[in-house]
Specification:
A hairpin with a 2-residue loop joins strand 2 (26-30) and strand 3 (33-39). The chain has helices at residues 68-78, 101-110, and strands at residues 2-15, 26-30, 33-39, 52-58, 84-87, 92-97, 114-116. The protein has one domain (2-116): VC0802-like (2-Layer Sandwich), CATH 3.30.2130. Strands 1, 2, 3, 4, 5, 6 and 7 form a seven-stranded mixed β-sheet that branches. With 117 residues, the chain is of the alpha+beta class. The relative contact order is 0.25.
Length: 117
Amino acid sequence: MGFRVHEERYEVALASTSDVVIDAFAVVDYRGERTVVRPLPHDRMAFEGRVYRMISFTGDLPLDMVGFMALASGALADRGIPIFVISSYRTDHVLVSEKDLDGAIDSLESIGMVQRP
């Protein structure tokens, strides 16, 4: 299994469910709250100053796969690296603080994952 580090820098913002969101990677509406993950730069909503990098896992991860995210998130947790997880139909993505990126790469490589271009 491999992973790819995106060149873009991202933010996680809190928005009103009535806000129009453009150019987002992910939008989650839950209980009157809208979470927006989007690349920087842009016009800001509730930007809190945290900059993230996205790591996407390569390969097709079936919806019935068990334990993959536990393995990856466990390796990151062992290093004290917080993550924000986004799952899509075929794969998973994690956002890590830009300052934690090198440690995240080392953590994933330590469990046998290979970084891909």
